[in-house]
Amino acid sequence: MISLRRIRTRHYFVAFVLLLCFFQLLPSAAQTYQPSPENLQARREFQDMKFGMFIHWGVYSVLGDGEWVFHNRKMTVDEYNRLPLFFDPEKFDAHMWVSLAKAAGMKYITITSRHHDGFAMFDSKISDWNIVARTPYKKDPLKMLADECHKQGIKLFFYYSQLDWHNPDYFPRGATDWPNGRPDQGDFNAYLDNYMDGQLTELLTNYGPIGGIWFDGMWDKPNADWHLDKTYALIHRLQPAALIIPNHHQTPRPGEDVQTFERDLPGQNSAGFNTTFISTQLPLESSDTLNDNWGFNIGDSHYKSAQEVERRLVRAAGNNSNLLMNIGPYPNGEIDPQFQVRLHAVGEWLAKYGDSIYGTRGGPLAPADWGVTTQKGNNIYVHVLNWAAPLLALPPIQTKITAAHVLLDNQSITFTQNADGVLLKLPSPSQDETDRVIVLSLGSK
Ligand code: FHN
Asked: In sequence order, what are the residues at sequence separation of 6 or more whose Cβ sits closer than 8 angstroms to the Cβ of residue 12?
């Protein structure tokens, strides 16, 4: 005979298994993520902005050897701890930085609130490993930048490194680990839930409305549980319109708002570490550097020309993507004059060609070697980037074209349209031309 106690134990066991199954079936917070109306609106605004300034700036700038110097020189934590003592950016001028971004035609700024060295470039109460507590400067440049951005109507995003080479609780350590004097133990859950979420709470509450958080570094421990559901929910609760932009180089996860591609156009994976998957739901962004480095590197004078930047911007827009172009300011807060000259030139170009970039989406034709198309309302912008011949044959466009003209001088363009495609008679290219833009006006179908 089965005893009463055994039956009860069995019942408990079955109930336990059912409960487990129930929780397995329950979708996580992120899987049920429904972006708020403010968030969806912010996504559209993000796509309209098209061009942003990326800024890598931290105590590493003192050594003028890029933002990975801690790791590359295999420094110890004790050695690196001395760097903030030399970081005194007395020339930092938030007004000048934001004005430069505006003059370049950039509509948003994404700045490193902390990079992989974990050093907070803002006034953090979570730890004293921050600019106010550890440097002779003693001020919070992100606060000044946020105030200035709000004043000048530029959106501010905070880059935040999930990877941390300094905090002992970033343990077990990841692929970029080296023996730098940290103990071989630590509480990763405390690092995520208290340290990281604590700092994110500061960034989302002390700086007014921000554009969003640009995450980087998860790739250091791709298989770890990063508590993403929790962190993403926190961000969306504190500022529903703030966009989550993860640079994890993978297919977007639920709860993420923008797909970003590092040094790459969407899906191309020419960098070798990006995904080829392109989201059709999320806004897209492509980032790159104005010279070869993210953080200030004194030996790097391999600057891209203004024309190269313009062409990248056009190619990005034609791929339905934004371009986030990086500069690494000096440790004293100044911005390399070489960057400034180029950014001003791009701004002048955008003053003439901006109509074909801002507020557009990728056009109806697939990007090709000759160029790309963008579209806004009833206009298709044909960006001729690489085509010297007088006739350009395009694949079919479904909507009837009623007129065609050159964007720059309104000159009418002769064209034919039929089921085989569209033939444009192009004006001859002028010397040093970045982009010949032909506007196709659309009628009804
Ligand atoms: O390691 C970083 C690097 O320093 C820089 O911040 C770039 C910017 O996209 N992201 C990382 C590499 O994926």
From this structure: none
Q: 311 to each of 83, 203, 366, 370, how far by Cα in Å?
A: 38, 34, 16, 12
Q: What is the DSSP string of 303-360?
A: PPPHHHHHHHHHHHHHTTEEEEEEE---TTS---HHHHHHHHHHHHHHHHHGGGTTT-
Question: What amino acid occupies position 348?
Answer: E
User: Is 112's C-beta closer than 6 angstroms to any atom of ligand 1?
Assistant: no
Task: Report the Cα–Cα distance between both ends of the chain, in Å, rounded.
Answer: 81
Q: Is 326 in the pocket of ligand 1 (CB under 6 A)?
A: no
Q: Is pLDDT at 6 greater than 90 in this prediction?
A: no
| Backbone phi, psi, residue 287, to 5° | -115, 155
Tokens of 411: 């000159």
- The predicted-structure confidence for 192-226, as pLDDT tens digits, reads as follows 999 999 999 999 999 999 999 999 999 999 999 99
Give the residue, out of 294, 300, 326, with the most ligand 1 atoms within 8 A of its beta carbon, to mutate for a pocket test. 294
Share of the chain above pLDDT 90, in %: 90
For residue 178, give the amino acid letter: W
pTM of the model as a whole: 0.93
How do residues 238-252 score in pLDDT, each as one tens digit?
A: 999 999 999 999 999
